[in-house]
Amino acid sequence: MREHLARWLALTTGLLLLAAALAFARWQNPLEGAPPATAPAPAPALVSEGSAVYEAQGCALCHAIGGEGDPQHPLDGIGARLSPERIRGFIAPAEAMRASLPAEVFEFKQQFRDLPPEDLDALSAYLSSLR
User: H/E element holding 77?
Assistant: First the structure.
């Protein structure tokens, strides 16, 4: 009887841990859905400008593209997961996003709010092209 109860308890605990891990993973990585299929591809010149902004701002210190940069936060395929507007919101987050990001990340990203709008547009276009 004790052996049966111990097995049941171990199985139940394992399933609860698995469910909690899945819920946490889903919470940390919500499904954003792909941008609309009808969304036009960014202009190649704007993508090129965005690549230059990415380099100039040192984004590779915290992010990686194609294995270049910090591998903890890769941006490969980000354009397939987030809309250009959402990407822009993560580059220079508004106060409303404070709760969605770690405090030090939110504070660090505030410097990008001073970028000219055309640089933010170009950077967003470049990241949106990463599919």
Answer: none
Nearest alpha-carbon partner for 119 in 33, 23, 51: 51
Give the pairing type, strands 64-65 and 68-69.
antiparallel
79, 129 in Cβ contact below 8 A?
A: yes
For tokens 């859905």, name the residue: 33
**Residues found in the chain:** 131
pLDDT in tens, 72-97: 999 999 999 898 889 999 999 999 88
Question: CB 72: neighbour CB atoms within 10 A?
Answer: 8
Predicted model pTM:
0.67
Q: What is the DSSP string of 48-72?
A: HHHHHHHHHTTGGGT-EETTEE-TT
